[in-house]
Amino acid sequence: MKILCAVKRVVDYNVKIRVKTDQSGVETSNVKFSMNPFDEIAVEEAVRLKEAGTATEIVVVSVGPAQTQETLRTALAMGADRAILVQTDVATEPLAVAKVLKALVGKEAPGLVILGKQAIDDDCNQTGQMLAALLGWGQGTFASKVAPAGDAVAVTREIDGGLEVVSLKLPAVVTADLRLNEPRYASLPNIMKAKKKPLETVTPDALGVDVTPRLKTLKVAEPAKRQAGIKVPDVATLVDKLKNEARVI
Amino acid sequence: MANILVIADHDGASLKPATLNAVTAASKIGGDIHILVAGKGAQAAADAAAKVAGVAKGLLADDAAYEHQLPEDVAPLVVSTVKAGGYSHVLAGATSVGKNLLPRVAALLDVAAISDITAVVSADTFERPIYAGNAIATVQSADAVKVITVRTTAFETAASEGGSATVEAVSGAGAAGLSSFVSAELTKSERPELTAARVVVSGGRGMQSGENFPMLEALADKLGAAVGASRAAVDAGFVPNDYQVGQTGKIVAPELYIAVGISGAIQHLAGMKDSKVIVAINKDEEAPIFQVADYGLVADLFKAVPELTDKLG
Questions:
Q1: Cβ within 8 Å, pair A222-B111
Q2: In this complex, do A232 and B135 lie within 8 Å of one another by their Cβ atoms?
Q3: Rounded to 5 degrees, what are φ and ψ at A215?
Q4: Where is the Electron transfer flavoprotein alpha/beta-subunit N-terminal domain (chain A) (predicted)?
């Protein structure tokens, strides 16, 4: 079974983002970027399925500017076999990415598509669900366990209040939650090897997909600032303040 | 004015509170509010939906196919209901059910979805947090149908009594045959779930090892709190990663958040800064966590936490 994995290049999770003064967006020049953490988990899961003999090939895909090649190389260093960059400088929305992925699924015919459950920049949590809808496939979102067996896959999902197991007919779309696995670090030899793995670049136009945003961002503002409070000298004072001043215990 | 369809999150017998938050968000858009209850034997939930203040109509799709709210089966039902009813907006609470279902509905309608809105500016313009709440985006949709999930903590709950809407039956295509429910395992822990807890006690790298976490659990049990952790504590292997509060973990907004041995990295603050009251216990008085804490205690956590637990007894 071939696995298609989608990854996104996002501002690194450790960066304190700054809103641009003209409120047009978030400052992204001279900021560290890395692979979306949920996508690392998706790639790791695909690599594990290959190591277990379930998957035969892992194709990793990203939609973004030229620099997204680095993100794809990281995925190749983790164990993906080849990469496809759908290059565009447009800030793509989930629906556009889902349409691009659908076009690639049409070409590659994977048995399983694994994505992260959400990107830590737009926080949408939509792309996997949209892709499944466009393909008419089953979806296993917020997965903490993925167990393919025969022509189906059992997916354990994180839901409010616990876990749920669903069985999906293959091919299917799965989105990874944090608990699914602990992604490996790419070793230096693997990083070197990844440089020689194939990376194909295409455009959304070539795939016949219109990636024009549907939503107009009117402004991006900073949230209300939180003020520092007081320091208390000891535990007794803390308990007293929580009981009598904040009234939360 | 076009109508608004709210998708109920329910257990067959009653509505989940998130549905009431979604109704409040819908009332700020303006228009008749209809609630769709899809389930099996869900008459009671539909009756409850019809009683919610501000609701004009209840819709009940009663079919074994909808018992477990599988999106492969429910999404086509929502789409056919939207098309038949000419709805301009589809809303649901941003619960695990809503987040799973609505993007699928949006794609079938070929419209953008708007996740986790925190404010309604107008019928086509909404505010939503991005970058884990470190920025607030105002977005405008030109799509014919707006498909929206609602951050429940950002809207009051609508009154569950006071409405007198009628319940109409609707039907959909039933089971799509793409997926099936196998089992569910709901947490039976005495301790509340992290994202829903009124009080959260979290530990960071300062805990030094996983063996020290029972100290936090003792404190949590005294407070009826959930236990969380920073990414540093998870990366160090102290606790599993489903404990993680932060940008790449769970976002919490409890009434009281107690951060123990947590420096306050950006990635962690993003997950808890909307808490009502934040307490920090840390021996490093320069730790950034003190910049957001309402009450800070500069102390050795191995002394302060047991003492705090004792004093609460």
A1: no
A2: no
A3: -100, 145
A4: 23-211
State which of B147, B169, B191 marks the end of a domain: B169
Tell me the residue ranges of DSSP E strands in chain A: 2-6, 9-11, 33-35, 57-64, 82-87, 112-116, 138-149, 152-159, 162-169, 172-176, 199-202, 215-221, 230-232
Range of the domain at B70: 3-169
Token pair for residue A175?
């989105």
In a shared domain, residues B48 and B7: yes
Are A207 and A165 contacting, i.e. CB atoms less than 8 angstroms apart?
no
Neighbours of B206 (CB within 10 A): 22
Residues B145 and B246 in one domain: no
Q: What is the pTM of this model?
A: 0.90
For every residue of B195-223, DSSP letters joined together read: GG-SEEEEE-GGG-SGGGHHHHHHHHHHH
Q: Which two tokens stand for residue A236?
A: 């007794």
Over 90: is that where the pLDDT of A162 sits?
Answer: no
**Is A3 in contact with A59 (CB distance < 8 Å)?**
yes
Burial class (CB in 10 A: 0-12, 13-18, 19+), A17: buried
Which residue of B72, B115, B223 is in closest CB contact with A139?
Answer: B72
CATH assignment of the domain containing B66: 3.40.50.620
Query: Looking at residue B189, what is its pLDDT?
Result: 66
Element holding B27 (H helix, E strand): helix B17-29
If pLDDT is split at 50, 70 and 90, which confidence band does B187 have?
low
Query: Measured between beta carbons, which residues in chain A are less than 8 angstroms from residue B295?
Result: 229-232, 238, 241-242, 246
B299 & B216 share domain: yes
The encoded tokens of residue B147 equal 């498909």
ipTM above 0.85 for this complex? yes
Quick: pLDDT tens for B271-306: 898 899 999 999 999 999 999 999 999 999 999 999
Tokens coding B257: 């958040």
Residue A245: partners with Cβ closer than 8 Å, 6 or more residues away:
none
Look at A218 and B138 and tell me if their CB atoms are within 8 Å: yes
Residue of A nearest to B187 (CA): A162
Cβ atoms of B253 and B133 within 8 Å: the answer is no
Q: List phi, psi (to 5°) of B122.
A: -155, -175
Pair (B157, B251) in one structural domain: no
Residue ranges and CATH numbers for the domains of chain A are 2-224 (3.40.50.620)
d(CA A91, CA A103): 19
How far apart are alpha carbons B221 and B237 in whole angstroms? 23
DSSP state of A142: E
Using CA atoms, how far apart are residues B304 and A205, in angstroms rounded to an integer?
61
